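MODEL INPUT / OUTPUT PAIR
PAIR INDEX: 1
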Amino acid sequence: MRLRFIFSQVWKGLRSNFALSASVMLVTFVSLLFVGAAVLLQNQIDSAKNDWYDRVEVSAFLCAPDQNTPQCAGGEVTQEQIDDLDAFLKSDQMAEYVDEVHFETKAEAYEALREYLEGSAWIDTVDPEQMQSSYRVKLVDPSEYDVVRESIEGRPGVDVVIDQREQLEPLFNLLNRFTLIAGALAGIMILTALLLIPATIRLSAMFRRNETEIMRFVGASNGFIQAPFILEGIIAALVGAVLAVAALWVAVEYFIQDWFAESWLRIITSQDVLMMAPWLLLGAVAVAAIASYVALRRYTKV
């Protein structure tokens, strides 16, 4: 009987204050949408980092003919210098850092360039003899790229040493900034929800002040009087959270997965959304319950 009465009061409050309840649902929906998007984006960035960094290589480009750089002041790399570098990379000294070594000749570099620039007029302006031969070094531990790079730089015949990690860092830093922006927007919306929920509950309690006074007069406890108002806030926030989870699931399942279906990277799936969903729902319930309880204790006389 008590539960039936409490839920009847909850339904009455939601119906009579539909606009305010809908605003709580909407704010919760947008807040958790940003929170979920930020979490999924960060998961994708971390996954991409692991996939990319496992494939990080250090590339040592050797001096080509007529190359005007300080490192190549002695002219084109000689076969002796190539042999010395090859022996160094395959030595016991580098064995703990170097997994595989691949030498790309000028002819192979030219063919790769032709394939990359296929159909472009630029390819006819390049002479195969102008190409740089190079070493591609796959690392045992990609985080040790600095050690390998510093060991190769400055050796005779080496023009420049490039590690792919340095090229990838700006991209991941940019993506991390997007995560921070999404997180900041989520924080603003959560703060809005924390301000809106107490206001909604406060107004609901004011509209039904006569009823709560009667309940207090007949001996109802504070918990019994407050329960319908707290449940109103929880239900409104919970509906918003469910809508946010549903929107994230649809976006990942029918857009993200389709757009990146051919990618070799591990792309976030709807399963990731479902694993995150309980935390979003619990967060919505906790925020709504605490905000409602504080509003009743501080601002209403029930």
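PAIR INDEX: 2
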Amino acid sequence: MVYRPAVFAGSGEAVFRAIDDFAHGRLHGGENVRIGLESPEAVRLTLAPDVPDHVRAELDRRRRQIVDGEVEVKKTYTGPEFPNP
């Protein structure tokens, strides 16, 4: 049996942006560039075809709430580490 997760995350856009910034002299040491949900080409989920429509709709609703500032996402975590099997 092959395990295939129903939700996938992609983050390659950040690498392409960094390369482009470097190539065009826009990459500056010590500078943080934040990429968020307002940039769907950079931050997105690719859902498996069998993910139910109501789950897709809820994810999109939450994304809009975060982008619109209705929901604040904590940027730090002080809880226990997840186990590393």
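PAIR 2 NOTE: The chain has one domain: 7-67.
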